Amino acid sequence: MEVIKVKGEIRTDLGKKATKALRREGLVPCNLYGKSTSLHFSASSGDFKDLIYTPDFKKAEIELDGETHRCILKKVDFHPVTDEIMHIDFLKLVEDRKVRVQIPVHLNGTAPGVTDGGRLVQTLRKVEIKTTPKYLINELFIDVSEMVMGDTVRVKDIDESDTFEIVNHPSIPIASIQVPRTIKTVAEMLEEGEAPDLEDEDAEGEEEGTEGEEGTEEGSAE
Q1: How far, in Å, CA of 177 to CA of 145, rounded?
Q2: Beta-bridge partner residues of 154
Q3: What is the pLDDT of residues 134-143, one digit of tens each?
């Protein structure tokens, strides 16, 4: 698992003026929390780029006054207009103490439903797990190689492990193979609440009926 190293400076002045001054200098005010730890520090906003602007899960090593703290990112506050990083909270990792983290889910394999013309749509991209620092992982995988059109894979389909617990409800969908509208049957469309286009069929029926009526009238005249 990739580890991002950050060197910070302990801050003792926690007032609003001091915090604004830090931001003007391109620094980000941060908090580091742990079982028996609560530290306030600041670091350059550029040092957090590879930790925040990525879909991957990574650990952080924060160096403060010569001491290194192994952490995970807990919360990031952004400016509502500029998206500037305003504040970051870190959680210190403690051996044998479980933490809850969001782990990316990746799809493995080629789905037959896609080959047949369906569209693979992933609706859940991260799963929350609970585990100890020793067993932290940076990604999870789910196999889609047997999915046909209309199939759905759910949280329960992720391979179980003795090293972590999945917090999300087992029935939550992760990905599905959507059936293109052009190949749906009328029965499928009705079942899904869609109205099939029967205008052409009705028109043909009307034309045939008209011709039949004309034929009947000719026969009566004779």
Answers
A1: 11
A2: 173
A3: 999 999 999 9
Task: Dump pLDDT digits (tens) for 191-219.
Answer: 666 665 555 544 444 555 544 444 444 44
Specify the 3-state DSSP secondary structure of 132: coil
* Separation of alpha carbons 127 and 35, rounded Å: 25
Q: How would you list the strands of the sheet with 119-122, edge to edge?
A: 119-122, 173-178, 152-154
Q: What is the DSSP letter of 103?
A: E
Name 102's Cβ contacts closer than 8 Å, sequence gap at least 6.
57, 126, 127, 128
Which neighbouring-strand residues pair with 42? Answer: 9, 29
Helices (H), 71-156: 112-115
Tokens at 109, concatenated: 């394999």
- φ, ψ of residue 141 to 5 degrees: the values are -125, 150
